[in-house]
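BUG: 3D viewer hangs when loading the predicted structure for this chain

Environment: internal workstation, default settings.
Expected: structure renders.
Actual: progress bar stalls at 90%.

Input used:
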Amino acid sequence: MARTPEQIERNRELCRRLSADPAVVAKRTARMVETVKEPEIKERHREACRKGKARQKADPKKLKEMKLSGQRVGELNFWKSIDEQRRLEEIEKRRAANLSWCPREFWSLNKQLKASKFTLEERKQIILSEVKGTQQHARRQIENMAIAQKMRAEREAAQKY
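Structure tokens produced before the viewer hung:
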């Protein structure tokens, strides 16, 4: 049963309107989260995906399109993987972009903190408290001075006797 262009457009408009409503999106998301927790539904979905992919591979035209698409993607990535220097440069650029908040001399500390399961916010707080010129560093220095003064006063009070 073919649908008319008007029906298709009406359906599109309804979908757009529903997708723009936060309440509908939240309800849909919650329902999907609950749905994918059920093992039998997960297995049915996997099986449907397997069958769909098998149907695509059975169609010679679709199979040829899939191969060409894979070749285009592979061709683009093949030369990147061949040139080791370029690959390392790309990794360095990505790292610099991801760690733009962190001075280079603290990258190793960030790596250690990340391996120790600190969250990004915790790592930022720790590292920025070490960087001179930041508010966090000044705050930490003031706290350290206050603690040192308190310890000195306690030591002097203990030594009076």
